């Protein structure tokens, strides 16, 4: 039995020695890995120099995948290395990052110190022209001018003028009225009290050497005496002076008839009205420009 005990003791010692030669940490700390998860390692098992900061990991994640870029042909580094070692220049000692940052900071401070101080511009310090441009200026409305050009004896002339003024931006309307037009001038002695007085006056005129005498026996001029009818007013006035020089009184009375007349009513600004007035004074004599308030209502075809 002694040799059996000795044999078991040797076997146990052998197993203990073999177990102590293995990595005790790997046997104790190795977690159970499920299939399909991959190679998992604890942070304690990774070298600290291989751990990357979070910012570097984020930068690498945003960078384009090098696998997707066009792959360049591989170069045998064993062939290039000897030639590269011969052509390489002596290494220049790298400049510490801390000194570069200090130089940049000092140059930035010098630039800021040398720059002139700037004063913020407020709305109160801004030039007056900029403030005026900020607020749009609304022009005041121009008061219209109303009136009428006329009279025209023919409707075609008035209609042509209305259309011409309308093309120039004026509001126009054609209006027709009636007017008394002189067709001649009568030199006469106004009606006397009765027929006997008229007959006696005719005898006196003939005794003075005046001829071309006619007595009105009816109408509005009954018992009046006509001394001549003239188409020209100047001739009528000369006949009147002749009668007066012989001691008899006489008057010049126009002979009137009622004829249609045409007016062009307008509404526009003063500048257009002045231009139209100047053209009419040169081309059409006797045409008037009668202005009236724009509130006036024309009932005979006007638009105002």
Task: Give a structural overview.
A six-stranded antiparallel beta sheet has the order 3-4-2-5-1-6. It has helices at 2-21, 24-29, 54-62, 77-87, 97-114, 128-134, 155-167, 195-207, 233-245, 270-283, and strands at 145-152, 171-189, 214-215, 225-230, 251-268, 288-291. The relative contact order is 0.12. The N and C termini lie far apart (148 Å). The model is unreliable at 65-100 (pLDDT under 50). It has a domain at 145-291. By secondary structure, it is α+β, with helices and mostly antiparallel strands. It contains ten helices and six strands.
Q: Name the structural class.
A: alpha+beta
**Principal-axis shape:** rod-shaped
Order of helices and strands: HHHHHHEHEHEEHEHE
Distance between the termini: 148 Å
Helices, by number, come to: 10
Report the average pLDDT across residues. 74
Uncertain spans, ≥5 residues at pLDDT below 50? 65-100
Number of strands: 6
Question: Could you name the key traits of this structure?
Answer:
single chain; 304 residues; alpha+beta; 6-stranded antiparallel sheet; 10 helices; 19% strand; rod-shaped
